[in-house]
Amino acid sequence: MATEVKETESAGKEIDFTACDEICEKYRDWKGATIPVLQQVQEAYGYLFSELVERIADNLNMSAHQIYGVITFYAQFYTKPRGKYVIRVCRGTACHVQGSGRISEVVCEEFGIKNGETSADLKFTLEEVSCIGACGMAPVIMINNKTYGNLKPEEARKIFRDYAELQG
Amino acid sequence: MSYTTDHVEVHVCMGTAGVASGGHEVMEALEAEFTKRGLKNAESKERNCAAKQTGCRGLCARDVLIDVYIPGKDPVTYEHVNAEMVPTIVEEHIVGGNIVEKWAAKADYFQFYDKQKRYVLADCGRVDPESLEDYIKLGGYEAIKKALTMTPEQVIDEVKKSGLRGRGGGGFPTGLKWTFCRNSPGDHKYLICNADEGDPGAFMDRSIIEGNPHAVIEGMLIAGYAIGCDEGYIYCRAEYPLAIVRVIKAIKDAEAAGILGEKVFGTDFHFKLKLKEGAGAFVCGEETALIASIEGERGMPRPRPPFPAVKGLWQKPSNVNNVETFANLPAILLNGSEWYANIGTEKSKGTKIFALSGKVKSTGLVEVPMGITVRELIYDVGGGIPKKRKFKAVQLGGPSGGCLTPDHLETPIDYDSLIAAGAMMGSGGVVVMDETNCMVNVAHFFLTFTQRESCGKCIPCRIGTKTMLDILTRIITGQGREEDIDLLLEVGNDIKTASLCGLGQTAPNPVLTTVKYFRHEYEAHIRNKKCPARECAELIEFVVIDDRCKKCGICKKACPVDAITWEKGTVAYIDHAKCVKCRECIVNCPFNAID
């Protein structure tokens, strides 16, 4: 089942803010830098935990709530850790009419996670996305950066099991 | 195809679908095979072979597609190519001169292109998107050079005379839009390319950028010069990583070649271009929301006026156009407005790219002249409905659009005819549905999307879409009430009238058109607690109809949870205790024998 993961990473650990500071520095004189800064910091740290958000706010001379306003508005910012493998199930129209809803269900059957959730072992995250833009091969999923198209539910199940068997 | 080469060239489709189907592996296999046989960089032209990546040519359902160009001969296309097939193709065709007929594209492949007119997509599938030289070799950047010999007013005039209308969906005359921004006071103006294509079911912008990024840059240069902008942004969805990589490379290469930056082609025109990645919000396709997002804010729309042409990015005059609009410009400038105005209908000029998907044989990206009928698009270009099923409806224009029915098959596809029929061009998504698709379910699907993507700023959209979604959920789960249909119409019309931006103003469209054309399906859900298309799981009984069952056992094979008992020569039986209502049996049964 999905876990409630703490929003902070601080628990007894020193956080190395070097990467975060460098990214902010790079954008110091940019107008409208919030989104690229958040994208790159998230890329570097995996997700945007509260200490990071405060650090970014200090760096950019903004308030943390302004930054949270941006984070919560866009689908691609995360305040919780995500799985090693992010399964993006396309829920675009073409995929919908070709039965992609069923593929989300298969993920749920295999790993017990629903849309937006991460498995307890931090291996898988399920993310239903609006359109991957490969409608010609619907239904489509992406696992990290690899795209799989023309999927049948049972083929998808096999792919998921293959990933589950990967070590680490 | 007029593309010629002086050596053997194999073009590999490396759009997203091409890559997903194994494009990289095919490229590698070709390279390896050429090296092994000493066919790379050979002295003699007949022995000099090169593999080249190209963008999407449209028929994604047949990927990986490759074209083999041998000097002096017609190109040959192979479909569904994988790495194992490569040695045979090289051996028999390239070395031996005999086409491998069993893998070569047949008549049905070419039928897909027969009624198309590919101008915007002409070079997608021919040009290497990561090569500036390749683009220039095919005549790239000649249009901006020509534009720079004209006055900006002459360029705008040319675009006005061409009749080009915005391809993002609204269809506003492009030249007129430019005039507003050009005439707006201020010496620093911005040009923005809207590549935040978020419509589920549409991917032409992605394919253009992935397949021919320099064409978009060239279009932006033309527009920038005409309007008087010195800075441009391409706002691209972060969900399109390949497009982003390619456009960044294209910008860098163009800068290095003096095409972007100070003194474009040595003239007094300066234009710098930046890429801005979106962060996942459908509403950012709306121009004022997009501008807010570039400024680093929550991407919420604001009331207009003032229009961006007056107060846009950083409060400066700005002009926003869609990717496809920009990509149309080089051809208009080069061939002239008259040439362009001769394509299409009286009020919708040129071609339009559609993403054809759903229950149609040839899914993919098509470019057709405006005015083509719905029937031609689905049956001639798309090859019709697979599995001998019946055509039921086509959703045009994504969540902003509407559904059309078999009665509309002769409707010409242009901005005005579609609106008259209750749909709209939108961004060009065309999703075909057959009798197994439930229209209430489709309406529910779109409302789920718009409700989730509503930015929440204005109440009609925020509360209204939620209300409509709740009603639809009720109906598809068998809890529908008699008054629900009227309620949907009432709330829907209110949202359309009172919403702040295009998202809310069009969100009810899928519901309103499905009620209009498929009211009986809504009624069947509400009154009879039945889903005629057998898609809404809560309303299906999941029993085998004995006299329809042909005792074939396909359903048993399809069932993922072993809920079906069947033996050779017996009627299948569904165990309700085990059944998870996944619909696999219904989808796979060729005889409609499960109710």
TrEMBL record, chain A:
Keywords: 2Fe-2S, Iron, Iron-sulfur, Metal-binding. It comes from Seleniivibrio woodruffii. InterPro entries: NADP_DH_HndA-like, NuoE-like, NuoE_dom, NuoE_N, Thioredoxin-like_sf. SUPFAM superfamilies: Thioredoxin-like. Belongs to the complex I 24 kDa subunit family. [2Fe-2S] cluster binds at C90, C95, C131, C135. Its cofactor is [2Fe-2S] cluster. One of its GO terms (molecular function) is 2 iron, 2 sulfur cluster binding. The keyword rRNA processing does not apply. This is NADH-quinone oxidoreductase E subunit. It comes from the Bacteria. PANTHER family: BIFURCATING [FEFE] HYDROGENASE GAMMA SUBUNIT, NADH-QUINONE OXIDOREDUCTASE, E SUBUNIT. The lineage of its organism: Bacteria, Pseudomonadati, Deferribacterota, Deferribacteres, Deferribacterales. Binds 1 [2Fe-2S] cluster. Pfam families: 2Fe-2S_thioredx.
Automatic annotation (TrEMBL), chain B:
InterPro entries: 4Fe4S_Fe-S-bd, 4Fe4S_Fe_S_CS, NADH-UbQ_OxRdtase_51kDa_CS, Nuo51_FMN-bd, Nuo51_FMN-bd_sf, Nuop51_4Fe4S-bd, Nuop51_4Fe4S-bd_sf, Soluble_ligand-bd. It holds the Pfam family SLBB. Residues 540-569, 570-595 form the 4Fe-4S ferredoxin-type domain. GO terms for molecular function: 4 iron, 4 sulfur cluster binding; FMN binding; metal ion binding; NADH dehydrogenase (ubiquinone) activity. Keywords: 4Fe-4S, Iron, Iron-sulfur, Metal-binding, Ubiquinone. Signal peptide: none annotated. Belongs to the complex I 51 kDa subunit family. This is NADH:ubiquinone oxidoreductase subunit F (NADH-binding). It comes from Seleniivibrio woodruffii. The lineage of its organism: Bacteria, Pseudomonadati, Deferribacterota, Deferribacteres, Deferribacterales.
